[in-house]
From TrEMBL:
SUPFAM superfamilies: Nucleotidyltransferase (SSF81301), Poly A polymerase C-terminal region-like (SSF81891). The keyword Amino-acid biosynthesis does not apply. Belongs to the tRNA nucleotidyltransferase/poly(A) polymerase family. Bacterial CCA-adding enzyme type 3 subfamily. A single active site specifically recognizes both ATP and CTP and is responsible for their addition. It catalyses: a tRNA precursor + 2 CTP + ATP = a tRNA with a 3' CCA end + 3 diphosphate; a tRNA with a 3' CCA end + 2 CTP + ATP = a tRNA with a 3' CCACCA end + 3 diphosphate. InterPro entries: Bact_CCA-adding_enz_type3_sf, CCA-adding_enz_C, CCA-adding_enz_firmicutes, NT_sf, PolA_pol_head_dom, PolyA_RNA-bd. Mg(2+) binds at residues 40, 42. Residues 246-387 form the CCA-adding enzyme C-terminal domain. It comes from the Bacteria. This is CCA-adding enzyme. Homodimer. Catalyzes the addition and repair of the essential 3'-terminal CCA sequence in tRNAs without using a nucleic acid template. Adds these three nucleotides in the order of C, C, and A to the tRNA nucleotide-73, using CTP and ATP as substrates and producing inorganic pyrophosphate. tRNA 3'-terminal CCA addition is required both for tRNA processing and repair. Also involved in tRNA surveillance by mediating tandem CCA addition to generate a CCACCA at the 3' terminus of unstable tRNAs. While stable tRNAs receive only 3'-terminal CCA, unstable tRNAs are marked with CCACCA and rapidly degraded. Residues 169-227 form the tRNA nucleotidyltransferase/poly(A) polymerase RNA and SrmB- binding domain.
Amino acid sequence: MNDVFKRALPVLQKLTTAGFEAYFVGGSVRDYLLNRTISDVDIATSAFPEEVKTIFSSTFDTGIAHGTVTVRENGECYEVTTFRTEGTYEDFRRPSEVTFIRSLEEDLLRRDFTMNAIAMDEKFQLHDPFSGRISIQNKEIKAVGKAQERFHEDALRMMRAIRFLSQLDFHLEKETEAALQSQIELLQHTSVERITVEWVKMIKGPAVKRAMDLLLKVEMENFLPGLKGKASALKEFASWDWEKRTTENAIWLGLVTTVQPSNVTAFLKAWKLPNKTIQLVGKTYQYALNKKQVWSAEELYHAGVDVFSLVNEINVIQYGENQQETLNRAYQALPIHSKKDLAITGADLLKWSNEQAGPWLKETLEKIERAVILEEIDNEKNQIRRWLGYHEE
Ligand code: ATP
Ligand code: MG
């Protein structure tokens, strides 16, 4: 038995000792059957949230409205979710209300794909009412129940199907693919935040090229932020060697350099990305467009480590060319790394010149900064003073 499950076993045991049912469910069971690294262990139980909270000494109400209580056990956190059905779906979105139930099978029935609807109990017995194991053997992504209805309930499942294709290198079962093709436009009702999560997982998967082929075949791009009519750019984007990626920012920089939206900030905002990402990718975009291979001292100085490293990452992914060490060395060799490193300040200039502060001050500082970066002068007080034409003290 896998160590991750062994560590989590006391959580199941405490629940069953208290008279409830409890199982490992979802991605962890699927990944275990696939011999993949297990990320997080999700637990489903017949105990209602308030009951879960009386059984464990340390709990957090993370998603209590949806039945999820986070439980701390042996220094690790586990999400324990009450069996539930999702009632009625409105607007093709995940329902806001859920009903707690006591039946495992009904809980598995609301799950998206057969491979994700397998439960494992404390004796490591599998409960697999929808033949998820057979789907896994056939490397097949198959909706639980009627695909058409399941995608209609929650359109995000179509995007999840494609990200699982990429992540697991599976294919879509026939009826599931047909349902995807026939109602892809429902995706427009899904919240962008959920789409973005799945998009990132799709790009991180080993079969991203095949996933993109299917995405373009069903014309899903028309319902993704800023990607309407961008099929050929996306094909190019997916052809890069994404396995060489190290940061998530590279996904967004790669996307804007291939799609070239008229307003990069607005494009990234439409994906609801964090401001930090928008700012960094926005600043890096101009440098990346030039596909810089040779950086001048001034460019390195103004770009900074984060920017030139991100451009380099894109060059690695797109062309297999890695210049990181050369760039680091050139950057380290710069005489200064910010205005603060200058040997003089605005106060020195005021004293030397006997003039009032004004725009000239900033201009002069920038002139000095540039001369120092280009090594026309040393970053040394007296030399700068002489260079400006002021008498020495
Ligand atoms: P990953 O390894 O990427 O986390 P996962 O299968 O665990 O994959 P999650 O998004 O963490 O995916 O969801 C956990 C489980 O919840 C899924 O395995 C599935 O059973 C169920 N699930 C998640 N999203 C949906 C959805 N939109 N519709 C139905 N069931 C879902
Ligand atoms: Mg998961």
